Amino acid sequence: MQRLQTPHVVVVMGVAGTGKTTIGPLLAARLGVPYAEGDDFHPPANIAKMTAGTPLTDDDRWPWLDAIGTWAHGRAGLGGVVSSSALKRAYRDRLRAAAPGVVFVHLTGDRALIEDRMSHRQGHFMPTALLDSQFATLQPLEEDEAGVAVSVAGGPEEIAARAVDALRALPEPTR
To answer: Which of 35, 3, 1, 9 is nearest to 21 (CA)?
Structure first.
């Protein structure tokens, strides 16, 4: 495995059930950088809402995104991988405002595949009932956003390998 010359700070994004928590650590290991679980940045009130099947509002998300952005900023020039749904452009803009060099790996897949994977998860607070709201909220990466889309078809190692290959094609990060 060849490492990128200057490590990116990567946000692994996508709707619930795409495998952010599985792919993120694999990607971090392949890049030789630390991984941070985005869910760990949620305040308890957010987790309680999601556990109850209540979608978060933007006001709920701002402190969470700010905490992730602070972590990403601290990893600038060092590299790191963090998971965050980052479903809206405004959320990604907020992360970029805190950490301008971040790049996104958008894990993509069709709803049926993702729902099937979610239904087999153990011990996660996000119910499949919120999947529709996730897809309704999703704004895919735009051409002017640094990042790549990676299909979640296949196994975790295969997905992580595709993500590394796609990241290698990106320009070196700015500091």
So the answer is: 35
